[in-house]
Amino acid sequence: MINKNSPIPIYYQLEEAIKDRIEKGELKPGEALPSEREYAEMYNISRMTVRQAITQLVNSGYIYRLQGKGTFVAERKIEQPLTGLTSFTEDMEARGLTPASQFISFSIIPASQAIASQLSIQEYGPVYEMKRVRLADDVPMALETTYISANLVKGLTEEIASRSFYAYIEEHLKLKIGHASQQIEAASADSAEALHLKIKKGSPILLIQRNTFLEGDVPLEVVKSVYRADRYKFMINMKR
Ligand code: 16G
């Protein structure tokens, strides 16, 4: 597997070989990798070289280190295309995962000036504020804070939103969701985010803000989402 006469650096050959075994499913999420010493002996290469390959794989998120325990295969990241305007429920179901929501809060509050202007309503107008942890197969993926005008979307309840907000809009209220604009930024989890997402404080997260509009440019929702950067990557195809 390792060719010492190749012009390709040995650490890179080892890195690619391990990556290949992970991608083929020969090494499974949660499984321990052989130790640095074992790899060094297996291929008759230096531990320094092994360490370099392992560090690369840790940095790219394929594996993770546990102090004193070794290195383990990480869960595969969810690849989220950025092309369609889809809901969390649709995204997870399309992958064969079971979506669920845990409510942190659900209330009707007076809109702040910033929210009111994005929703094109009056300041202090009634808005739903809902904070949900979104789970896939019981694993927390994202923490979402959503603002929706209560005069536009009638009858929304915690029970309805614990299934799917978009389904309620389209199937029950028969409104048509038109378009959205979205921003994605890197950040690190504060203590509340870390707690809800079951990650360490300071872990990398993706901060997403989405403004969604009904057909006819009526603002439907302002959403701030915090996604686990260890479980998510966003994909986009570009044409020139
Ligand atoms: C996604 C959307 C969010 C929307 C939600 C509806 C992002 C960043 N956010 O999470 O804006 O409110 O789906 O999901 O993609 P639901 O229909 O499952 O409640």
TrEMBL record:
One MF term in the entry's GO annotations: DNA-binding transcription factor activity
PROSITE patterns, sorted: HTH_GNTR (PS50949)
Xref: InterPro entries: Bact_HTH_transcr_reg, Chorismate_lyase_/UTRA_dom_sf, Tscrpt_reg_HTH_GntR, UTRA, WH-like_DNA-bd_sf, WH_DNA-bd_sf
Origin superkingdom: Bacteria
Kinase listed as a keyword: no
CDD domains in the cross-refs: WHTH_GntR
Keywords of the record: DNA-binding, Transcription, Transcription regulation
Pfam families: GntR, UTRA
Domain HTH gntR-type: 8-76
Any GO BP annotation: negative regulation of DNA-templated transcription
Protein name per the record: GntR family transcriptional regulator
